[in-house]
Amino acid sequence: MLLQAIFRPEEAFVMDGDALAWRWRGHNVGRLEPLENIRLIAPEDLVGIERQLETVDANTRQFLAGLPSNHVLMWGARGTGKSSLVKAMLQRHHDRGLRLVEVDAHDLIDLPSIVAPLAGRDEHFILFVDDLSFDASDGSYRALKAALDGSAASTPDNVVIYATSNRRHLLPEQLVDNEHSRIVDGELHHGEAVEEKISLSERFGIWLSFHPFSQDTYLEAVALWLDRHGVTGFDEALRAEALRWALRRGNRSGRVAAQFARDVAGRRALETSASARAGIDTVSRETR
């Protein structure tokens, strides 16, 4: 039985006053479930993406004020803060009624059912689609396209879509797609297949690109996360270790910096604990 045939919006969403975020459970379940342990991030902890943060924050404030605002697509290198930026918006603005609904890309076919119980509520909802991409045979992108088009199937005024992707154009591009491209009067005109694949991402009002960190930005992020973990003494030896860590991962990003800081903090805490236990054992033997 089709989800739309059994879905009753009034039964799908009961507001939990303590919840800041929900996840849509599709696969014929058709239910919004509160996320108990969503990990938020402070905007000031986002390093190297200040321009993107400023743009998304301004758009979010417009959205919360009931002013014209745009759906946002954040694309680019993995681990560079795309998802963290969205969660930073929830951290900054939840006291103004901002809430988050996470939706898997393959569940976008359920989009009308997802937004139905949100319409008309006092809260404002970011519909967050992380790691958005489609294969050539995936029809879910048509539901998203309709929502972004401002058609009858579009989102209500208190819902905005923020999506992240590693792909700029969301759909895979094949060499054969370019066979129908032509140059006319010195200008490149894409074939229909390419135009279709480009058109979806162009329907987001705001496009933001994220790139791998420079070495200096990466080390700045490492220093911040070490400080957050209470680790002092970010000296040349630790900097070199941080760079080797990134080299092994094949990536310099905020995520890699945070992972390195957690590793250092954990190792140092373990060493301190072991030293303390060794000291207790020594005292115990001496007092016998």
What's the helix and strand layout?
Layout: H1 3-6, H2 9-12, E1 21-25, E2 31-34, H3 50-64, E3 72-76, H4 82-93, E4 98-102, H5 111-115, E5 124-129, H6 140-149, E6 159-165, E7 182-184, E8 187-189, H7 192-202, E9 206-210, H8 215-228, H9 236-249, H10 254-286
Parallel strand pairs: 1-4, 3-6, 3-9, 4-5, 5-6
Antiparallel strand pairs: 1-2, 7-8
Helix pairs in contact: 3-4, 8-10
How would you describe this protein?
With 288 residues, this protein is α/β, with parallel strands linked by helices. It folds into two domains: 3-210, 3-Layer(aba) Sandwich (Rossmann fold), CATH 3.40.50; 215-286. It is 42% helix and 15% strand. It has helices spanning 3-6, 9-12, 50-64, 82-93, 111-115, 140-149, 192-202, 215-228, 236-249, 254-286, and strands spanning 21-25, 31-34, 72-76, 98-102, 124-129, 159-165, 182-184, 187-189, 206-210. The chain has a seven-stranded mixed sheet, covered by helices on one side. It has a two-stranded antiparallel ribbon with strand order 7-8. Helix 8 packs across helix 10. It is globular, with a radius of gyration of 23 Å. The chain starts with a helix and ends with a helix. The relative contact order is 0.13.
